[in-house]
Amino acid sequence: MKYHLLILFIIGISLTKLWSQDRALTSEQALNQFNSISDSIWSTFPEDDIKTFRRSSFSELQLQNYLSLHFRRLDLLSSIKDHHSFILDSYLHSGNWFREVGFPKESIKSYLDFFDYYQKNESLLTSEELKKYIEMRSYGRSMLAESYAKLGVLDSAAIQHKENISFTKNQGYIYHPSALNNYGLFLYWHKEDLDSALYYFKQAYNFTQIEYPNHTLVGSIRDNIADIYVDQYLTEKAQLLYKTNFEFFKTAINERTLTKDIPRLISAGSQFVVTSTKLNRLKEAQLGFDELESIVVYQGNHNNLGANSKLEFLKAKELLLENQNNSTAAYTTAKQITKYADSLQRLANNGDKKWQEELNDITIDRIALNFKIVRIQKENKIKSQRSKLWFIGILSSSFIVLLVALIFSRRQHLINAKNKQLLAEQKLENSALKVEQLNSEIKSKERDLSDFAIRLTQDQDWAKGLAEQLEAIKKASSEERDILTKALEQAIANKISVDSDTQDFFDRLDKLSDAFYSKLTSSYSNLSKNEIRLCSLIRLKIESRSISTLQNITLASLNTSRYRLRKKLILSEDIDLDFFIQNL
User: Fold this and answer.
1) Among residues 176, 188, 97, 99, which one has the least CA distance to residue 145?
2) Do 151 and 104 touch, CB atoms closer than 8 A?
3) Torsion sign over Cα 462, 541, 559, 567
4) Closest by alpha carbon to 117, among 148, 146, 83, 142?
5) What pTM value is reported for the model?
6) CB of 157 closer than 8 Å to CB of 191
7) φ, ψ dihedrals at 253, nearest 5°
8) 41 Cβ partners below 8 Å, 6+ apart?
9) pLDDT tens figures, 106-149
């Protein structure tokens, strides 16, 4: 019996090898196919043309074809050997293209493939290639963080920013202050942490001013600092920075395009006019506006004025006219702004709706196309292998006949042994089921008791605060006593209202999340009710501050709850909790 099984095993291995030999592409074949597909793409969308990285450049059919060809190229990269720089550039290009046209999940995959391939093949790169990929790796980290942020996976985005800061610290040139500035923007835009963002902006600004005072990054960082000053109502500080930037961008040349950055110039001028007006420095604002208006008119005449730049200029003009008591002109400008903004919004809404519909169609078409390609490939391979498989099939059939005869002779013996085993297993299963039911009931009671203890602790804390308020009322004067009594009544009313609203919210949440709860508890039976609810709130992408309010706990306590939840879910440090739960 063992002898015959060994022969069948050897035959199976031989068949697998024959299939693999016919199926695998050589490195040269894969490279040729990649270049052929690239030539096809280049004929319509050259990859050195900025339009290729704009979603609005593609019709529905063009985007479908581009995606199909692009995915075929990516599949070929795993078969290409020794062309390390070529493969790294291809992954990086893929990540950049997906990010620019609005596919953040796909861009993340390509960037991660880039870093994974670099790590595995770094020792095989030349010194020139290693130098080249210093900038590419820094850029890739920033873009990877940006894609995570677009998906709301902020923990992963923060990790990438911090890794980039650490990586660029000893690399020199502009990479390090750029990484600091990008992390500041992340804290500013996505975390709304103004103090931390300002700290990183100032670090980047001090470094750049000393080492590269004429680099346009100086202007960008200066603009970011000024924006935070505006949010902090430090208008005078912001006005000085905007004024400096207005003068700076009049002559500054962008290091990549080797041209003036007109949008930043107009933005700096508009912000200078706005802050000067708010400070009631109308003469200074008027002088800045006159200079800005001449720039806008000149750029408009040369078709070099963007829609956002024009809108920002008009808003600055309206504010200045209002403060100069020129109501008629201000009203006319306001109508221009409204009309222009509505037009832009309509275009944006139509574009979003159109591309959302097209994206669904493209996804379906891509699946159908891939299925068709796989089917054709299988049919071709079956034809080429038929003669080989026919001979091997005849040879193996004779061995199978002998084995079948031997199997039937032992079949009855195995059936009897199996029946006895099944009876024993059934008894064990019945016993195990009873034990499992009892354990489940115990765990349910433990979770309910844990939740009750938490609520009891919270109520005790509230009651303690209530007692302190009563003691203060007793000691207060008659005038203060009325005020403190009203505050106490309001606190009690708020407590009743909050408890009622919160309970109603969680009742609805439990009903809507019933399927999610079942899936979660089946995989992780050790979770408490509060932890299950926390998972549901994270799944709904509710912010941490709102979750802490709903659960009547501090942010510090919420962070502790999140830490305990990670341990129960057995998550490693490199897996983001929010991303994991939202993809369950």
Assistant:
1) 99
2) yes
3) positive
4) 83
5) 0.56
6) no
7) -115, 130
8) 47, 66, 69, 70
9) 999 999 999 999 999 999 999 998 888 888 888 899 999 999 99
